[in-house]
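Appendix B. Worked example

We walk through a single record from start to finish. Start with the input: the chain for Epithelial membrane protein 3, Dicentrarchus labrax, length 165.
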Amino acid sequence: MAYLLMFVTLLHLINLAMLFIATMEKSWWEWDGMENSDLWYNCRFDNVTGGWFCASSKESEWLQAVQVLMVLSVVFSSISFLVFLGQLFTMSKGGLFYFTGLCQVFAGLTAFSAVLIYTLHNKEILQDSRELTAGHFGYCFILAWVCVPLLLFSGVIYIHLRKKE
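Next comes the structure step. The output line below is what the pipeline stores for this chain.
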């Protein structure tokens, strides 16, 4: 039981870190390594100064939906972890972690919705950027997709997990 508890806690922390990185980092769409776009900024690398110059992304309804859903996913996962820690110390023996699992499943569903919207509507989201055929999805986008099954899996584990002493 102790190993399962450590596994679930570690999985949750890994999920939370990956979600936070996917939401805040600057690589949802890349063009040849010198320009990229994320949920918040469009950035270009300047060879002269060796730095990144970033400007705010053009606002669109689809981009705002992705932003909100990814932030909600981080919030749901954070709440789930805090509730889990609280339930470890306050729940009676034999209790189930329903609320924790439900929050984690909601985090997975909101992340799924966000990456699905970005996948289907990236032309509208990146409308004023360079030609899309010259670019590809970045590592943060892929990281967000990896989070989806892990969040859903950990949510199901929480729902079936019983507290033992």
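Two observations about the output. Helices lie at 2-24, 61-90, 98-120, 122-125, 139-160. The mean pLDDT is 86.
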